[in-house]
Amino acid sequence: MFHVHSPQSLHQPHATSTGAIIELEDLCFAYEQTPVLRHIDLSVAPGECVVLMGDNGSGKSTLLRVLCGLLFAQRGSYRLGGQEVSEATMRDTRFSKGLHQRVGFVFQDSDSQLFCASVADEIAFGPQQMGLSQQEVERRVSDVCQLLEIDHLRARAPYTLSGGEKKRVAIACVLSMNPDVYCFDEPLAGLDAKSRSWLLGLLKHLKTVGKTLVIATHDQSLADEVADFFAYMGEFHGYEDRPHVHINE
Asked: What is the rounded CA–CA span in Å between residue 144 and residue 240?
């Protein structure tokens, strides 16, 4: 499980609003002519954990990409902390950097987000893009390596790591940015029992320190452990006696 106490600097929020941090209103998205997200209304408060559950192809991963500014609503709106996130607003470099600092995305396939020559370079990349001083970058790299117990991997090339080690490094890259919102796509996929237990502990830790979590998963045991409410997507129906919403129907 997850027992390390992380530095306070990794948990300072970027906003103090008590309103919704994520607001989706009538949001639609299609790949070419194929609708994937249909008239989605969803609101998530700071510090909440919403678990997206649905069959393959129900739009879970696409919705996460919208939240992270990788895809954009073609109808309706997405607001983060009251600010609209759109293709137009993301053309502003300052706004784009701010969004990528506030919303972190851990991909299902860690290989798709690891590309630097070493683990240390990988973790440093995001803070460097934010224009932080070299001293601050080095401090953040040191802090997250200690937190995730990967100090011994700092000089390793990511492609030489095991699946569980790659997942830790991918999470370290996001954690080094100190986001308010963490988006996870199938976080337990492909992990052994020890790594699954560790990651579940980390998710609970992030909740404890007030981070907002949006998790797409098929893993019911994970969902049961961390969800404040469920967003059932498409034709999927789960617990009707637990807090939930139906979206993308």
From this structure: 38
Q: How far apart are CA 173 and CA 21, in angstroms?
A: 22
The pLDDT value recorded for residue 1 is 36
Strand order in the sheet with 83-84: 34-44, 22-31, 75-80, 83-84
pLDDT of residue 8: 44
Task: Please provide residue 144's backbone torsions phi and psi, each rounded to the nearest 5 degrees.
Answer: -75, -30
- pLDDT the model gives residue 14: 41
Q: What is the reported pTM?
A: 0.87
- Residue 19 CA to residue 133 CA, distance in Å, equals 32
In tens, the pLDDT along 2-54 reads 333 344 444 444 443 458 999 999 999 999 889 999 999 999 999 999 999 98
- Spell out, as residue ranges, where the chain has pLDDT lower than 50: 1-17
Q: Which residues contact 152 (CB under 8 A, 6 or more apart)?
A: none
Structure tokens at 226: 């961390």
Which residues neighbour 177 within 8 Å (Cβ) at sequence distance 6 or greater? 100, 101, 104, 126, 127, 130
Backbone angles phi, psi at 210, to 5 degrees: 90, 15
Residue 41 and residue 110: Cα distance in Å, rounded?
Answer: 29
Report the alpha-carbon distance of residue 66 to residue 206 in Å, rounded: 22
Tell me what pLDDT residue 13 has.
41
Contact 52, 63 (CB under 8 A): yes
Concatenating the DSSP letter of every residue in 70-132 gives SS--SEEEEEETTEE--TTGGGSHHHHHHHHHHEEEE-SSGGGG--SSSHHHHHHHHHHHTT-
- Alpha-carbon torsion 197, 198, 202, 205, what sign? positive
